[in-house]
Design brief:
Order of helices and strands: HHHHHEHHHHEEHHHHE
CATH class of the largest domain: Mainly Alpha
CATH superfamily of the largest domain: Photosystem II 12 kDa extrinsic protein
Number of strands: 4
CATH architecture of the largest domain: Orthogonal Bundle
Number of helices: 13
């Protein structure tokens, strides 16, 4: 009987490592890229967006950070933006929606999401990975639409175990804040987060950052 040649031990170890690495990557929760964040964008970046005249940009800068997409939406409505203008603007910039906590009203601000997709976003909670999102939302729309929707949402980052890459995906987190987010591990409570991160940024910015993380 002819036997298949055995694999070298190093090959088997490499294959096992690749499998573990892929599994770990599947568990990552990052903020999906692709849209400008109005809370962290520069003045020049905001002025380059559709329908963002200087007076509106000034108001936005004065009132940010916005705790949710609904807060930004309210400001834009105050300034008289119409449906077509919202579509154009939200195709370029948006305050990300938390997949695990967002209300239907907030989800439906996502262009062309609609009531049905709001239902599906809520149906599969808790969301834990982008692989899960691709699989479940991919039952209803094609991959191009899954990728488009992903740009508007986020899955909270695990504060105590997230990689540098995970933490740096949070809008506005640079090398300094990355250091502080890791420095105080293990995080145990929101009060601790507010106390320690509040040493470096104001209360509204602490609240904005808290939106993107979870302690487990």
């Amino acid at each position: 009987m002819t036997h298949a040649p055995s694999r070298p031990t190093s090959f088997v170890a490499t294959l096992a490592l690749a499998f573990v690495t892929a599994a770990a990557a599947d568990l990552r929760a990052q903020v999906a890229p692709g849209l400008l964040d109005p809370n962290t964008a520069t003045e020049s970046e905001l002025l380059a967006l559709p329908h963002m005249a200087p007076p509106l940009v000034k108001s936005l800068l004065e009132r940010r950070p916005f705790a949710s997409a609904l807060e930004l939406d309210a400001l834009l409505k105050e300034r008289g933006l119409g449906a077509e203008q919202f579509q154009a603007l939200y195709g370029k910039a948006f305050v990300h929606v938390n997949l695990n906590t967002a209300t239907e009203e907030e989800i439906r601000l996502i262009p062309n999401a609609g009531r049905r997709m709001a239902h599906e976003f809520q149906e599969y909670r808790p969301w834990k990975s982008w692989a899960q999102f691709d699989r479940e939302i991919g039952k209803y729309v094609d991959q191009a639409e899954v990728s488009r929707l992903k740009r508007y949402v986020f899955i909270p980052v695990k504060l105590n175990t997230a990689s540098d890459e995970d933490l740096l995906s949070i809008p506005g987190v640079g090398s300094r804040m990355l250091h502080e987010l890791k420095e105080y591990r293990p995080w145990k409570t929101r009060a601790q987060f507010e106390k320690e991160i509040g040493k470096y940024v104001g209360a509204k910015e602490v609240a904005r950052l808290w939106r993107y993380v979870v302690i487990d």
